[in-house]
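FAQ

Q: What does a record look like?
A: Structure on top, sequence underneath. For example:
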């Protein structure tokens, strides 16, 4: 994790609901809610341009500046998208201390080259591309690496096979399949919602595409 926490500037929102949230977005704001640490939830309007720049870059920890209140350290816990699943329209932020343990989603990056991929028709499947981990706020990683160099055809690597750094705990199901290799003729048509990545001259990698549904962006408004 980067040592610098970017500042998100925001103001409190008194009027809630879909109509008022739409007005916030039209004015260049991003609706959100801040909660945790035994304090009452606070609904906010965050300056969207800068916030979305850092959120889309994968950052999760921010310093929230809200009106005349003291800055708070917050963790990005959830984002809601529009009905197309492309634009962020609402965020959930949890108050945290930099040294406390938190549970976060971490992207799984496949590294290494398996000799099995040299077999004709070999396909690398990546059905689960993120996991839940527990770690200190200051240690939240950009990603977790999984070495597939020893992976053989017909075998799988699970969440339990990850070599997590010291102080990290796996919060996902240890039996979640992260990667496996099969021969093409054994693979049926990808299920609806599955995404094929890396088509062309190189090996195929199939990942599960997250189905983002329209929550109207205001489940917590």
């Amino acid at each position: 994790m980067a040592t610098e926490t970017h500042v998100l500037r925001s103001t409190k929102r008194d009027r809630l609901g879909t109509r008022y949230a739409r007005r916030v977005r039209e004015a260049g704001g991003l609706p959100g809610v801040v909660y945790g640490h035994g304090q009452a939830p606070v609904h906010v309007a965050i300056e969207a341009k800068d916030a979305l720049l850092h959120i889309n870059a994968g950052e999760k920890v921010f310093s929230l500046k809200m009106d005349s209140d003291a800055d708070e350290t917050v963790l990005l816990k959830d984002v809601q998208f529009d009905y197309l699943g492309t634009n962020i329209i609402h965020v959930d932020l949890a108050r945290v201390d930099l040294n406390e343990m938190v549970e976060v989603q971490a992207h799984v990056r496949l590294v290494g080259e398996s000799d099995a991929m040299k077999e004709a028709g070999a396909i690398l499947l990546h059905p689960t591309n993120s996991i839940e981990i527990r770690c200190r706020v200051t240690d939240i990683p950009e990603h977790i690496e999984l070495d597939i160099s020893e992976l053989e055809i017909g075998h799988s690597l699970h969440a339990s096979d990850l070599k997590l750094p010291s102080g990290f705990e796996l919060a996902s199901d240890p039996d979640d399949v992260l990667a496996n290799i099969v021969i093409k003729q054994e693979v049926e048509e990808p299920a609806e919602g599955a995404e094929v990545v890396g088509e062309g001259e190189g090996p195929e990698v199939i990942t599960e595409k997250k189905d983002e549904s329209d929550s109207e962006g205001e489940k917590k408004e």
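Q: Is there anything notable about this one?
A: The radius of gyration is 20 Å.
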